[in-house]
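User: Here's a protein and a ligand (zinc ion). What would the complex look like?
Assistant: Let me lay out the input and then the predicted complex.
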Amino acid sequence: MAIHERAIIEAVSGLGFAGNEEGLIPAFGLYLTKHFADYYNRISYALLGDFIRRAPELEEDARALLIEAGRVCSFHTFGGIMTSVEWDAVVRPMIESREDWVLGMVAVVNALGWGRWEVKSLEANERLVLTVHDSYEATGYVRDYPRAKEPRCYLAAGGVAGLMNLVYQGDITARPTFSEAYYLEIFRSPRTFAARETRCLAMGDSCCEIVAERDPI
Ligand SMILES: [Zn+2]
């Protein structure tokens, strides 16, 4: 294992993200947000609850939009992180293979407070299986809503698909520019990665599991 997760978590945790005099957090080439997980959860679950009760025909679209938000988030946030000076200083020296870009990014995620991501298997250029313990989406859901019939970690699922796209569908190692054109090129490709959440704490499973694979041709 080239990637030392504990060292990465300690380094990233020490960066001390905080608002500047304008209240903004510029980092990794974008603006980070720091707010209550409940705030995000209430918005997304209200969309799927109250709103969809009034317009049930839009349920699939609503779910797809929440996952798309995760894909766009990962494109800019993970992309920005993996081309940052902090990445170059802390993670890049450990990297020995393209797969290490995935493992390194997962280690950084584990410093961000989203839950504990753990790569269970990674098939180069094809498939990633990852578990999330204490996903903030699922723990918030479990506290406030009855047991779900479907998985609820939309941002995480979109994020995992996005990570695979950045590493294998695009080429993060070439330090691309994160433009809309580049987003469309790698996320709208017929062979783009899609993620399914196969287990979820919100459904009563012991943890969440997300599988990212290329869309079938
Ligand atoms: Zn989940």
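Summary: The chain has one domain: 35-214.
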